[in-house]
């Protein structure tokens, strides 16, 4: 088993004459909380999508848990142990919280297409759903249609669904976007409470959130990797202050 959960080598994504991601290399050790930072248009979302399998690189390689995943689609990467959330919630709005979690748990089940499942397999699935409902504090809302949840609770449910099958790598795309201060604090607490067996890579615009959850940071600007470092290194870099925070003082 590789000591790195995610390795990106010389990755390039070209759209016509534009290089959205330009020869970026990145390594994220197993168990690390790593945040991608950069101003709008820096290439964060494109890099994130190439790691998740939503986009294919023009060149370069993506390795997940020691396996070359460059040409694997998003679903195949899920079976390697990858889970992710999106900037815009992707929940089933007209069914209940519990039913959304059931679908998430069933998604990776080997018997998901078997209409003659055993009673034991259903019991095991419901045990996991009940565990998620309790851990993520949805017990009272389990039979509530998702569309009746607050936006903050919908983001929290999406996180619960992303970890439903205990992924080894979790990609979080702006998990606190659009949340109130109280909702943000709850999501930060839940992220920090994830076991260290799970490697977490986040795109996050809220700097307070980023500094609260991250072990290390990677800064992108105009598609290029500017630096990777710790919080103190990022805070102490005049160059980063200028390009990311707009501080040229």
Automatic annotation (TrEMBL):
GO CC annotation: plasma membrane
Keywords from the named record: ATP-binding, Cell membrane, Membrane, Nucleotide-binding, Transport
Transmembrane segments: none
CDD domains named among the record's database cross-references: ABC_Mj1267_LivG_branched (cd03219)
GO MF annotations, alphabetized: ATP binding; ATP hydrolysis activity
All residue ranges annotated as the ABC transporter domain in the record: 6-247
The keyword Cell membrane is annotated on this UniProt entry: yes
Entries under PANTHER family matching the protein: ABC TRANSPORTER ATP-BINDING PROTEIN, CONSERVED COMPONENT OF ABC TRANSPORTER FOR NATURAL AMINO ACIDS-RELATED
Protein name as catalogued: Amino acid/amide ABC transporter ATP-binding protein 1 (HAAT family)
Organism: Pusillimonas noertemannii
Upper taxonomic lineage: Bacteria, Pseudomonadati, Pseudomonadota, Betaproteobacteria, Burkholderiales
